[in-house]
Design goal:
Elements (H helix, E strand, L loop, with lengths): L6 H14 L11 H30 L9 H34 L17 H30 L6 E8 L2 E6 L4 E3 L2 E4 L4 E7 L4 E4 L6 E4 L5 E5 L5 E7 L11 E7 L1 H14 L9 H7 L7 E2 L4 E2 L6 H4 L5 H9 L18 H4 L2 H16 L2
Parallel strand pairs: 1-5, 4-10
Antiparallel strand pairs: 1-2, 2-3, 5-8, 6-7, 6-9, 9-10, 11-12
The chain binds heme C and copper (II) ion.
């Protein structure tokens, strides 16, 4: 069966030739080849600029990132923008060529032919190897410089030891003799966090500060941050560390230097001048029970574990004690085993455990 020539196709073929041919000046008239070429380039540039501006607006106007609440966040966001800018330029280039090609060289519905086979173009291959190599190197050098600058902490700084364990954080201030379930810091004061883990790999992350670091059992890792905004910020674990991973939340509270000083004094008093807390209610807060359990008397409303006001009503001291030191012995219906930490037996002295059990019995009797 003979094929009727398709006028559209012919014009496609011509266009291909026109684009590929070296410009030949036709004597005595305007140069049609370079005219077509120039029009094609102008159209592609237009498409490229439009797509580039479009994605740039999406990148800029949509609030993709949380607040910038630390000195480091400003530097890290600069790296983000640097990389985003490169991405926008490349996107615009690719969009220009592919949209133009899609519109101009689309095959007619009845044209079953493949495009002309093209093989190898050394110049093009050199260009598309060299440009990405340069870009990737630039990104890594810039990020490396920012990281070096961030990690270079001022001599005068606070050190806080961060301990991660399934599924809670604790923060120790070695120079103040304070241990807290929340990370409390003074605004504009550089801090070095020394991270360690008691069990598996966890990772410390406060999105508003941008910085993030793993807590690995057996080694000490470090993280430097200078909070520049007041407020409570969420502390998250960003390493899937077990069943309770999603509940491994704490709070980073940034206070003015005066309020921080007040907090320190209060903590020292509460700790009875360095000794371990002996009031059951204090232990309940200090050990992080309140991050998982609801207990009206302690003002906690967490729902990771059972509501203690409900489940402990009418229970005896033995049950409560067993539940704390051996949480897996009996699992409350509807709850997962291995969520509640199993090391309270080791962490609490007998005296503290007695006080805690007594407190829980007292607090839940009325309800
Ligand atoms: C990481 C979250 C978490 C923390 C921290 C935690 N618990 Fe639990 N707790 C649970 C979960 C989940 C259960 C239910 C499963 C079970 O029985 O082990 C539970 C069960 C209990 C029970 C038994 C309730 C019942 O009816 O069986 C008691 C009592 C209890 N917790 C007290 C405490 C005390 C006191 C502390 C602090 C010293 C504490 N928990 C810390 C998550 C937690
Ligand atoms: Cu974790």
């Amino acid at each position: 069966m003979s094929k009727t020539p398709n006028p559209l196709c012919v014009s496609h073929a011509e266009q291909r030739i026109v684009l590929a041919a070296p410009s030949v000046r036709v004597r005595g008239g305007p140069d049609p080849v370079s005219l077509v070429r120039r029009r094609a380039i102008i159209q592609m540039v237009l498409i490229g600029v439009l797509s580039g501006v479009g994605v740039a607006l999406i990148a800029y106007l949509v609030p993709w990132l949380p607040d910038r609440a630390s000195k480091e966040a400003v530097q890290i966001d600069r790296v983000f923008w640097f990389v985003t800018f490169i991405c926008i330029v490349i996107f615009a280039l690719v969009a220009a060529v592919s949209i133009y090609a899609g519109l101009k060289f689309r095959a007619a519905p009845d044209d079953p032919d493949d495009g002309a086979p093209i093989h190898g173009h050394t110049g093009l291959e050199i260009v598309w190897t060299a440009i990405p190599a340069i870009l990737v190197t630039a990104i890594s050098v810039y990020s490396g410089l920012v990281l070096l600058d961030i990690e270079n902490i001022a001599k005068e700084h606070r050190t806080v030891e961060v301990t991660a364990q399934q599924f809670a954080w604790s923060f120790t201030y070695p120079d103040l003799g304070i241990t807290s379930q929340e990370l409390v810091l003074a605004k504009d004061e550089p801090v070095e966090l020394k991270l360690s883990s008691k069990d598996v790999i966890h990772a410390f992350w406060v999105p508003e500060w941008r910085v993030k670091q793993d807590a690995v059992p057996g080694i000490e890792t470090r993280l430097v941050v200078t909070p520049t905004q007041l407020g409570p910020f969420p502390v998250r674990c960003t390493e899937l560390c077990g069943l309770g991973h999603a509940t491994m939340l704490s709070r980073a509270l940034v206070l003015s230097p005066e309020d921080f000083e007040k907090w320190v004094q209060k903590q020292k008093q509460a700790a009875g001048g360095g000794g371990a807390a002996t009031s059951g209610k204090q232990i309940f807060g200090e050990q992080g029970c309140d991050t998982c359990h609801t207990l009206a008397d302690a003002g906690s409303t967490a729902q990771v574990g059972p509501d203690l006001d409900k489940v402990l009503a009418g229970k005896d001291a033995n049950f409560v004690r067993e539940s704390i030191i051996d949480p897996n012995a009996e699992i409350e219906e509807g709850y997962q085993p291995d969520l509640m930490p199993k090391d309270f037996d080791a962490k609490l002295s007998d005296e503290q455990l007695d006080a805690l059990v007594e407190y829980l019995l007292e607090a839940t009797k009325a309800g």
